[in-house]
Amino acid sequence: MTLKFPIYMDNHATTPVDPRVLSAMLPYFTETFGNAASRTHAYGWSAEGAVEGARESVARLIGAESGKEIVFTSGATESDNLAIKGVAEYYQSKGNHIVTTTIEHKAVLDSCKRLEKQGFTVTYVNVGADGLINPKDIEAAITDKTILVSVMLANNEVGTIQPLAEIGKITRARGVLLHSDAVQGLGKTPFDVRAMNVDLASLTAHKVYGPKGVGALYVRRSKPRVRLAAQMDGGGHERGNRSGTLNVPGIVGFAKACDILFEEGVVEAERVRGLRDRLYDRITSELDAVVLNGSAEQRLPGNLNISFAFVEGEGLMMAIKDVAVSSGSACTTASLEPSYVLRSMGLEEDMAHSSIRFGLGRFNTEEEVDYVAELVIAKVKRLRDMSPLYEMHKAGIDLKSIQWAAH
Amino acid sequence: MAYSEKVIEHYENPRNVGSLDQDDEAVGTGLVGAPACGDVMRLQIRVNEAGVIEDAKFKTFGCGSAIASSSLATEWIKGKTIDEAATIKNSQIAEELSLPPVKIHCSVLAEDAIKSAIEDFKKKRAAKQALASQ
Hints:
The complex is a heterodimer of chains A (407) and B (134).
Chain A: E1 7-8, H1 19-25, H2 27-30, H3 42-62, E2 70-73, H4 76-90, E3 97-101, H5 106-117, E4 121-125, H6 135-141, E5 146-150, H7 164-174, E6 177-181, E7 200-204, E8 215-219, H8 248-286, E9 290-292, E10 303-308, H9 313-319, E11 323-324, E12 326-327, H10 340-344, H11 349-353, E13 355-359, H12 366-385, H13 388-394
Parallel strand pairs in A: 1-11, 3-4, 3-5, 5-6, 6-7
Antiparallel strand pairs in A: 2-8, 7-8, 9-10, 10-13, 12-13
Helix pairs in contact in A: 1-8, 3-8, 4-5, 6-7, 8-12
Chain B: H1 5-12, E1 27-34, E2 39-47, E3 53-61, H2 64-77, H3 82-85, H4 90-97, H5 104-133
Helix pairs in contact in B: 1-2, 2-5, 4-5
């Protein structure tokens, strides 16, 4: 098999649509194109039937009681906004305090920031050096004013899988709702809303080989029944939770993607984990001063976030432009701060600048992994030969002993 | 981010990578930037009796633009007197490499590295002269 360049290893950012998903979607653009809200004719009924079936597929994958608990949205950013702002608005008479973590996705953090401006208070629980939340810290942050705790299932940068089941026990005992942005972990690590006492969960299709522009919010209907204040006004779709004509082809594709994961997810996770471990083993057998960021055990199977000390991340990405990956370096973003997730873990800024995130997925092959490993090894060696820091490190100079002039 | 052709060319074929003997009295060393900021440049010059830069070497920890800026800086200062080299401005480096606004700091760092290396050399020369006149 010939390799196709650039080799895609950025599956945390998005994934290609699985051909089986695309085939399932196609008829819903041209033949079964009806509006799921049209109650007066067969076109509408067929579309509605497809959407109702899709709810069951999504519900089954996350262990929900019923498809009625699935609210379709435009994606996880909307789901996070709806969950956090919707709960805050509905339950504001009960309390005005929210607990979340410092490593959440911006859709969660910025929704919380918006609420702070409206008079809510938010506690941001920090992670340990391993990128994991300590459930005791969540428990300690809950007050009698707390209405919601929001903790992600798995982190998008370092792939750490959070102890949601333990956190769920705490929130249930304290009578506080638990929301989880489950985007990165869905279908890759066990996730069961009932076993974990999760009350709301944000999901998206495009991270699980489905199309972009469609997602869902799981909203528990019993024990407890969760209520939301809708954030979009209109035709009252999705039981009044989210107005707007349903994206029927997208929803059908999302459901197909969930069905594939339900059938194949466990086997796939093991295969992807094998590829990830192969990449890591190759790289570390040839290079010194390579640091794995985040827990090695509680980690998504496809995630490899590593810092190559003494090499700058963007410079390295330029050298390995045959591979599509991302970096925690500031230089890759408009802001000048390196990754807030890596900083929350207490990583030194220079190591944050040197980090690369490899995200392996369904369509990566062993051949690709071997090619990428060789490329990375060769380029890191070349850049280290050009790095004054590596030369100083080799000469036994402690870089921390030097008075650097910040600029 | 798209890089200019000149940045890519310098990045892929950097001029004058390496080290000069820091303890040599004819060598001036400039080490600027900080690991925490994502760029560190070390630029070294060897200056002859006439005050001409005979050789220049660099090593850089940084992005492609930082590596290209330091490579270009060494290329420009070789053969110049230290006074001529000290007049090189970051804006000239940025213009030559077509650096976008977010990468201007790379050219600033290269200018600082040149100045810092010259200063180090001058300090050494002054110390040597002071020693000789004693």
